[in-house]
Amino acid sequence: MSLNLHPMVNVAVKAARAAGSLINRAALDIESVRVSQKKANDFVTEVDQAAEAVIIETLLQAYPGHGILAEESGNQHGARDSEFVWIIDPLDGTTNFIHGLPTYCVSIALAVRGKVEQAVVYDPTRNDLFTATKGRGAFLNDRRLRVSKRTQLKESLVSTGFPYREGDDFDQYLVMMGEVMRRTAGLRRPGAAALDLAYVAAGYTDAFFEKGLQPWDVAAGSLLVTEAGGLVGNFSGESDFLDQQECMAGNPRVYGQLVGVLGKYSKFASAGDKAAVRQSTLTMRPAAKQEADAPADTDAAPETDAAPL
């Protein structure tokens, strides 16, 4: 079957494949790739920058009047006042890439007046191309995508992302993950949010949640999910999530149940829910801190052999 892709998606596919070729070539010799650190545990490579440059060049050649919002260069390129803005993550999963773990992708979305209407997520390691146009469905290569049909959270496989930046509330995330783990068939952390969302759209996983994400992490993947029949929002279940740094997605039944679990961890939760979450976090923190801070018992008597029988 040959897909009749929207012209703007065709251009984005061309850009994503060009970036993917750069990434695949670099992956053949990871040790020679120059890596720098934007913040603690937040890396960028020369490959990110080269891939972003080729994507921007391809898009602006076709649509010189469009705006650009890219992970590495922000809105330095393109028109500043356009209603059409391309949202780009040239290499989502950089940490995986620099360690040779083949779970990363190129993510390109087009927002029109703030609403995502076109999406491409390309996995160059598997040559998997996810595409979506608003109102036309989502596809993996030539196959139409639908979210999973599971109806119970307890039967579901859920993906997430762990906090890794200085200042992230690790303890609260541990409490939150513990709640999800007790209620599901499994929790996974692949390390590339755009692929996580694409996999929800494909039905490989039943839901996804993560805090601290930027628009370029979730823009393309979110359209894949909704065009595959799923739901995307913040932890409270509200659909206006793109700039809120919290994202949850899933098939409709599992999504609704996950709101009941994660809603109290949302920045939009009630004061009572936020207080309960703080208390849960404080309850677990002293025990972990006490164990970590406990000095070694250097004065303990040495073990002796047991008395002979």
What does this entry look like structurally?
- With 309 residues, this protein is α+β, with helices and mostly antiparallel strands.
- It has 2 domains: 7-144, Fructose-1,6-Bisphosphatase, Chain A, domain 1, CATH 3.30.540; 153-265, 3-Layer(aba) Sandwich (D-Maltodextrin-Binding Protein, domain 2).
- 37% of the residues lie in helices and 23% in strands.
- The chain has 8 helices and 14 strands.
- The chain has helices at 7-27, 46-62, 94-98, 170-183, 193-202, 215-227, 252-262, 271-293, and strands at residues 35-39, 42-45, 67-70, 84-92, 105-112, 115-123, 128-133, 137-140, 143-144, 157-160, 186-188, 207-211, 231-233, 246-250.
- The strands form 3 sheets. Strands 3-4-5-6-7-8-9 form a 7-stranded mixed sheet, with helices on both faces. A 5-stranded mixed sheet has the order 11-10-12-14-13, sandwiched between helices.
- Helix 1 (7-27) runs antiparallel to helix 2 (46-62), helix 4 (170-183) crosses helix 8 and helix 5 (193-202) packs parallel to helix 6 (215-227).
- The longest helix has 23 residues, at 271-293.
- It is globular and about 55 Å long.
- Its cofactor is Mg(2+).
- Mg(2+) binds at residues 71, 89, 91-92, 217.
- Its EC number is 3.1.3.25.
- It catalyses: a myo-inositol phosphate + H2O = myo-inositol + phosphate.
- Belongs to the inositol monophosphatase superfamily.
What key phrases describe this protein's structure?
Fructose-1,6-Bisphosphatase, Chain A, domain 1, D-Maltodextrin-Binding Protein, domain 2, 2 domains, alpha+beta, globular, 309 residues, 14 strands, 23% strand, 37% helix
